[in-house]
Amino acid sequence: MDALNALTAFGENPPDTRAVVAVSTVGLVFAYYVNKAIKAWRANPGRLPYPPGPRPLPLVGNVPDIPQTFPWLTYTEWGRKYGPLVHLTAFGDHILVINSAKMADDLLEKRSQIYSDRPSIPMIGFMGWGFNMGFMQYGDKWRTYRRLMHQFFKKEATAYYRPIQRAKIHDMLRQVLATPADFRDHIRTEAAAIIMASVYGYDVKPVKDEFVRIAEDAVARLGVGVFSPINMAPWVRFLPGWLPGCGFQKFLSDTRAVVKKMKEVPYEWAKANMLQGIDSTSVVAKMLETGQGQAGSVDEEMCQAVAGLAYAAGADTTVSAISTLFLVLAMHPEVQKRAQADIDAVVGPNRLPDFSDRPRLPYIDAIYREILRWRPILPLSVAHGTTEDDIYEGYFIPKGTTVFANVWAMSYEESVFPEPAKFRPERYLTADGKLTDDPRMDITVFGHGRRICAGRYVAEESVWLSIASILASFDVTKKKGVDIPGTYCDGLIIHPHPFECNIVPRSADARALVEATVDAVYD
């Protein structure tokens, strides 16, 4: 009878559905993480410790600790507290931050066979960026894309790009001469022009170029997606856009359209030119000539992707480095004076620097290296992922761990770089003025192991000649009464916040040399 009364009471007073759903959801989530914890426990039969790090909370782990802005600075501080390897968890997933160049070499280079994967970043696919080799997971497709990219951007191929680089850098010099206050815009135009001419055979317009506008928009959206919280809960992608808080659906739709244009429109333009016999030297034309990129084939999709990726990977990094150069020259006149003295001694007053001068201008190389160390363009690497369990220095690193190389921490390691906050190019020179070969100072901002940037050689030459040409042509100084903050924006690739400076020709002869480039023939 008591049981019957209880059933009757239950029927008359049913429990709150929301409470039932909530309790059930909590139970399922708890069961999921318990199962995950058991699997992790079984995967580590030796019960080895994880590397040290902040104490995790139940279930969520270190999610509240993970910095949302300038993460490399927080990870550097944690490195001082916990050591060169810092371990975190987020909802049961493992994260490893490497703050040591030696350990990055040990793991990402010497053990690259198991540290070359990429963790899944759902927003990359949601935005239409799935073709981006930089975020592609390790496997046959990535290897195929990598081979094609390497074919056109390997070290032996750099000579092909030099006439284009020289011409576009000289264009930039003339633009800076004409409107020095707009130097940041001119840097962006230069970076875009080199890539668009090399890859598509397309000459960028000095201002408001449509192809460049599309590409810059697509790349800017990529940065937003990489750091989006949607990556932590990708299922929200399937919620309708009209629901409150789901305005991101329009962002995704718009981004897919922009990325599609970036990939297809300049490619089709270059393809039409090649078929009409107008262009036979661009990367796209060469891919088509060798039978890659046949209409409607998978190869054509791959060629579109490789061409589009060249802009995404190269333009913003070049802009970051050259923007830092202007900042450095305005803040460190002694660096500018020494560099100009070297250029005058080697190049003379009758021409601008060229690639052939590089072996005799070690201080310019030292400036280039110090720019990349002092303000690394990519202070925190794109994440690697482990494909197997690993043991290093007595610590257990599980399969599926997300691994970041903290390039900032490596660049500011005081035992290697004394007074790291100071801009000192001479740290890269020996007592007799030659470039040092100390391997500890070889901090790469272009990635590690099998994931190192395929276009790094071409990018390096563009930045080097830009540095030498700017120093040969202009004096850059602080504006009287105007402070330069010297601060940088947050993001995957960092840039100095806008600043003002004086940019004037070094002399009447320097002005004449820059003006004369308008009639130069580049081959």
Walk me through what this model shows.
With 523 residues, this protein is α+β, with helices and mostly antiparallel strands. It has two domains: 2-43; 131-378 and 412-519, Cytochrome P450 (Cytochrome p450), CATH 1.10.630.10. 50% of the residues lie in helices and 6% in strands. It contains 17 helices and eight strands. It has helices at residues 2-12, 17-43, 71-82, 101-109, 122-126, 140-153, 158-178, 183-200, 210-226, 248-275, 283-289, 298-331, 333-346, 362-374, 407-411, 456-473, 508-516, and strands spanning 85-90, 93-98, 384-385, 390-392, 395-397, 402-405, 474-477, 502-505. The strands form three sheets. It has a four-stranded mixed beta sheet with strand order 1-2-6-3. The protein has a two-stranded antiparallel ribbon with strand order 4-5. Strands 7-8 form a two-stranded antiparallel sheet. A hairpin with a 2-residue loop joins strand 4 and strand 5 (395-397). The longest helix is centred in the middle third of the chain and has 34 residues, at 298-331. The relative contact order is 0.14.
